[in-house]
Amino acid sequence: MTRPRPTLLLSGFEPFAGERINPSWEVARALAGQQIGGWRVVALQLPCVFGQSRAVLQQALRRWRPAGVIALGLAGNRGAISVERVALNLVDARMADNAGARPVDVPVLPGAPFGLATRLPAKAIVARLQAEGLRAELSLSAGSFVCNELMYGLLHGLRRRPKVPAGFIHLPPLPEQAARHPAGRAMPLAEQVQGIGLAIGLLAAGIDELHTPGGRLS
Ligand code: PCA
Question: How many angstroms does the Cα of residue 162 sit away from the middle of ligand 1?
Fold first, then answer.
């Protein structure tokens, strides 16, 4: 019997804040079914709803038992593919989610640690993307909206499977969203797909984190 290929679970969000498109789902959809470095990509669309996105992701973790997980989301004010380093146990929504909820100053999981570190080789991914000419950066905060909550839930949910690389990457707006996101810098879908494909390849290759300086003063 042949062993099933390892699965890379790639999640993206449905559109939110009245938009019609979310690059995170477009990228996940574009990579769905591909084989990258011997890993098979399974794409999962998540609702932009507090609580629900985490629940749907947990179900998928149980179903697929993935070898790696990359969760994607839109950060409309960014100009690069942003690998998030930290998830905070804090929800403070500056707008309503897609179910109309706007929780303020509540934990994702009461009593759980305040911060959880990514389990992606974040610096190695950024270095590789930059070497390919793509705009990529490290980020110290995934915000306090649904993406941060999802990242926290992902890392907490996998706490007993420490060997599974997992984390969150924020994406800049697509060119067709540029007018709605004047603070961001749009990136074509093809570049976003290329960047996330490269990141998946690094995970499949079992690449280690690079311990080059990448910190910030503020
Ligand atoms: N971005 C939002 C939630 C869904 C998405 O794609 C965020 O950054 O929290």
Answer: 25
CA distance 47 to 99: 9
User: Domain of 58?
Assistant: 7-205
What's the confidence (pLDDT) of residue 4? 79
pLDDT digits (tens, 9 = 90+) for 79-117: 999 999 999 999 999 999 999 999 999 999 999 999 999
Domain assignment present for 85: yes
The domain spanning residue 101 has which CATH number? Answer: 3.40.630.20
Q: Is the pTM of this model over 0.85?
A: yes
Provide the number of structural domains found in the chain.
Answer: 1
Protein residues whose CB sits closer than 6 Å to any atom of ligand 1: 13, 16, 22, 24, 48, 73-75, 143, 145-147
Q: CB–CB of 200/36 below 8 Å?
A: yes
Q: How far is the CA of 183 from the centre of ligand 1 (A)?
A: 16
Residue-by-residue DSSP string for 38-50: TEEEEEEEE-SST
* For the CA of 12, the nearest atom of ligand 1: 6
- Which segments in the chain show pLDDT lower than 50? none
Q: Which of 26, 84, 149, 181 is catalytic?
A: 84
